[in-house]
Structures are given as C-alpha cells and as structure tokens.
Design goal:
By secondary structure, this protein is α+β, with helices and mostly antiparallel strands. The chain is about 30% helix and about 30% strand. The protein is globular, with a radius of gyration of 20 Å.
Amino acid sequence: MMMPAIPDYLIREYRPGDETAIVELFSAVFGASMTIAQWRWKYAADRDSGPWAQLAFNTAGRLVGHAGAVPLRGWRQGQPTPFFQIGDVMVHPDARGQLGGRNLFTRLARALLTALAEQGPQVFAYGFPGRRPFLLGQYARVYGEIEPALALRRPAHRWAWPWLPLRPLAWDDARLDRLWQRRAPDHPLTLIRDRDYLHWRYAGNPFHVYRLLGLSLAGRLIGWVVTRREEARLLVIDALLPRRWLRPALAALDRIAVLEGASESIIWLPPDWRAVAGSAAQPTGVIVANMVWALPIATAEARANLYYTMGDLDIF
C-alpha cells in the first residue's frame, strides 16, 4: 500500500510584509482579531533580534501555517540567557490532518526550534498550550510537560485590612531595577523582570491596560504586582515579591479587589510559591510546556526552577 505523498509546503522564515497574511490566518484559525501593529509589538518591537517566526505556504502561495517566538531576556542560575515564548502556532484547517513528521504543526515547530537553537548553548523556550495542542506537541517530541498551570482564586473579603498595603507605582520608577537586582538570586530560571521589561510588556501593551502596584516595608520597595480588571475578577497578571512576604501581599490584593468592586482575585504561581500562599488552587486548562526539540534545557530543570505568572503568556 502506497503512503500518501507529503504535502508540498514551502516553509521559510518571516520576511517583512508577511504581517498581512499572518493576521488573516490568525483570524481564520482562532476566530479573533489581531492587528498588524499588535503582531509587530509582540514579535518585533524594539528588540535586538527577530522577528522569529516560521511560515508555511501551499503551492498556490497562500499562507497556511505560522509558528512564532517572542524574544525575551531571561535569567538562569545567576546569568542572563536568551528566552523565547512560543506563541501563535497555527495551521489553517485545510492544511491539517497528516501524521508524525508529515504534520504541518510538527514541521513548523521543529523548524522554529531548530532556528532558535542556533542562537547559543543556553537558549530556553517555553509556551502555554491547552491540553489538546500540548498532546500534539508532545507526540511530535516538541513539548515536554513542566506542569499543568493552576490558579489561586481568592474571594474578595471586605474585612481584609493588610498591614502591608499596595500603592500605585510609576512604570519608570528607578527602584524597579534595584528591586530586580535584589530579587534575582531567588529565581534560578525566570524572565528578567526589570523596568525595561515592565515598560514593554505592560506600559506599552496594545492589547490591555494594566496597573502597577508597589509593596513597601518601612519606606522601602520590596515587591510589585501588575493587575487588570476582567469583568468581576481582579487578575494578578505578574508579581515580583519576596517569598516571605507573599501572604501579606495576597492579603493586600484581597483589599484591592474589594476597593475595585471585584468579587475575587486570581493569580498564577509555580508549585513552591503556591505552597507558601496557602490558598486552594484550581486547574486552568493550560499546560506549562518546555520546548525540547533541539534545545538544551531539560524539562526536569525547568520543572524544578521555572518561576512564571500569567504575564509569561501573551494573552493576559
């Protein structure tokens, strides 16, 4: 019995001008809109490298697949290291259905990760797929499971009156860099959460509006959180906090939720931080995935060390 021929797709790197077809494919696959400006902000805004994307075209020259990597500054065991957040891995319905190495998702993802691996011996790439896409990527030997992401959901309590309040903080506050320098040794694998990162990821974000709140002790900035409202929920998108002050910080967030009329606050944290928080955690349906094809950092290391929040995703 003859095997079906492998579809003849042209897979290549992004070229300037591809954005129009990319956002059209995004709409067709996800049923949501993304503007060209938003795509450029995510993949190409004021970065030292990139955009990092692999594109697939059919024989008619139509874009039918895309896999992107957002270039980020990471931190591993006390040293800066290249981070990439994998996103917008999408294949048009007309180009789906092949198995194994024939699958266009597999071919795109492997091409992207192979290109990222050429950036050095310490590259770390990760993503946050749902369960079904994760299983496809795991079968393709592209994804390794770090953990299912869990959310701490805390009802807003009107009696909450924290002794360490959270107060508004400017995005360009010089103390943000000094705080990162103090907190960095506590994080063996994470994004560099300094002032430049906050300014790009949140202050200049074209999708959402965020609020930066600082946690102070005796007049010294000891931590911050980034929040935004989504209907009746206060989403804690990002946080850089001392572990010993996590519970007081969460109590302060309870108070913020009350003041803003939210019914609950929601925060994502990795396992060791969830244990300190002492709050019940609920499944999110998202898998924290290590990119394993051609890349050097083992999933076991990422599972033991990665610090992440909602802000590591590109959708919040």
